[in-house]
């Protein structure tokens, strides 16, 4: 699986459904200022893509935006992962896959809620053309990012996706990502870390509970934001040498790309996205499809809101 192949799979699955698709190739990404997605995909011979899917039924009053991390394979880039840590990195596109399957299910159910899904697709590879530690890139919303670790790439593609999704002024915006190993260390393999605004948190907690999926509300400590200060850009993507609060810092970085006035939540599904053990309940071995049900339930809740 690589970005263009995932685009083809998406296009095949939405045939016959009331879902429209817009695809940005590498030239369109450059023209429209998607510097995060472009930077992450620079090292690969298989260029990145951005896919916007939209389901807009008649009578819909609320608008849910989903933004999915879609790293089709993650080597870490020039900040190369150890070999054993690359095993399973084909699942680093799970956030995009989850967002995609959620909009498909909502469309098939005919729920009266508008949904846009942004699939941020890139392959993170090392090469002579790859982005480098110390590079400064510009995100869609105009903010600059100092890249200190190319293996913290998911937040770069999501920054572009969140910026674009926010331009449509949705009522609720949720990003979904296998963002940090720190989430798995903190919460294990069955809980997703949940961060964001109070209204969004409550809606997602209720949706997850009704769907039988597990989330855990994590804080966003303001004092940790200073760890991402940069002398040469608006923000850095990591703090070199810091090991504290990795999941929280990832969420704080993403918040920088959410404008005031839009309710937002971040789901770090690094643990539940891939089940390396035996199947349990409705959860298979391998890729689990976790949180599709939660997002569909969230769509149902928004559909009946006045």
TrEMBL record:
Keywords: Aminopeptidase, Hydrolase, Protease
Pfam families: Peptidase_M17
Residues of the Cytosol aminopeptidase domain: 149-156
Coiled coil region boundaries: none
GO molecular function, one term: manganese ion binding
InterPro entries linked to this entry: Leucine_aapep/pepB, Peptidase_M17_C
Keyword GTP-binding set for record: no
Protein name: Unannotated protein
GO annotation, biological process: proteolysis
Family: Belongs to the peptidase M17 family.
GO cellular component: cytoplasm
UniProt entry tagged with the keyword Transcription: no
